[in-house]
Design goal:
It comes from Proteiniborus ethanoligenes. The chain has 122 residues and is mostly helical. 63% of the residues lie in helices and 7% in strands. Helix 1 crosses helix 3 and helix 2 packs across helix 3.
């Protein structure tokens, strides 16, 4: 869902929506992605904004264009999205978690112990 109050641009949110659908398995290799007009109608945004979000994914090799037919999920798209999100996790999210734990005085051993317990609940 788009969050118009987010710090992220709408076109970035559009790209993330498609990525999430790929990660969840709702969009598989060779499936057609929603069109720019579909995004524009559902989210009441300019089709050019939606196109910009989809084009990001084309540039990253996650989607590809079939002339006259639209955008489709590329082979290995899920792996590409996973790698992209993993890189983001380790470069952006995890350092912030570690910094917050340090500010709160939480020892790294406690975090590791919690992670191991959490993983055991799966």
């Amino acid at each position: 869902m788009l969050d118009l109050n987010s710090d992220k641009s709408i076109y970035v949110q559009i790209a993330e929506i498609i990525e999430n659908e790929i990660l969840l398995g709702n969009l598989k290799e060779e499936d057609q992605a929603p069109s720019t007009n579909q995004f524009a109608n559902v989210y009441q945004i300019n089709p050019a904004t939606a196109r910009k979000g989809l084009n990001i994914l084309v540039d990253e090799g996650i989607l590809y264009k079939k002339r006259g037919l639209g955008m489709f999920v590329a082979e290995d798209a899920k792996k590409i999205v996973q790698k992209k999100r993993q890189d983001s996790f380790f470069k952006e999210i995890l350092p912030e978690i570690i910094n917050e734990a340090s500010r709160l005085g939480i020892p790294m051993e406690d975090i590791v112990e919690y992670l191991l317990k959490y993983k055991g609940r799966e």
